[in-house]
Amino acid sequence: MAQATVDVTLDRLAGFREVFPQAPGVMADASLVDEGMIAARTLLTDADGALHADRPTAIVAQSDLLAVGVIRAAEELGLRVPEDLTVVGFDGIAADGLGSLKLTTIAQPAVAKGRAAGEQVTRMLAGEPGSPCTSPVYSAKGRPPLRCRMKKIARLRQLASTSLRSRLCFCSSPCS
């Protein structure tokens, strides 16, 4: 897999690798639907566009936009989601273009993260020193505290035991 550079991408990949150390992965150029389609075709087909005999039965995408692209590519290849291919995204955004399908996603607490950042900025603008974030949302370094990352890892393990089958892949992007 190409080098990821954004902390959130690295954290998600690390959590995935902790649970599924041998799973293959591909790096998309950006967190876009079209890039998800390209990544899915790379994971699912050979050079001639035929489905791999040992294709993945599940793909965890680093973002919901990549996951939408994976679903679209799977449908173009004649695969049914979730019957033939399980797809999981990250972020919990409203994803358009899926018809009747609902995206399985690991949601981010965007409002709570924004509130914590706003409170910190307000304190600093008032001349008060910044203080370590004690919220379970984000730590002082800007990364989720270990207990939050562990909840995500536990969720991946739960998904693996209930809906992900034998072959799993990770689709990531360096810019998300």
UniProtKB/TrEMBL annotation:
Which InterPro entries does this entry report, sorted A to Z? LacI/GalR-like_sensor, Peripla_BP_I
Pfam families for this protein: Peripla_BP_3 (PF13377)
Q: Does the keyword Nucleotidyltransferase apply?
A: no
Q: Which UniProt keywords apply?
A: DNA-binding, Transcription, Transcription regulation
Indicate the secretion signal residues.
Answer: none
Q: Does the keyword Magnesium apply?
A: no
Domain Transcriptional regulator LacI/GalR-like sensor: where?
Answer: 11-133
Q: Superkingdom, according to UniProt?
A: Bacteria
The name under which this protein is listed is Transcriptional regulator LacI/GalR-like sensor domain-containing protein
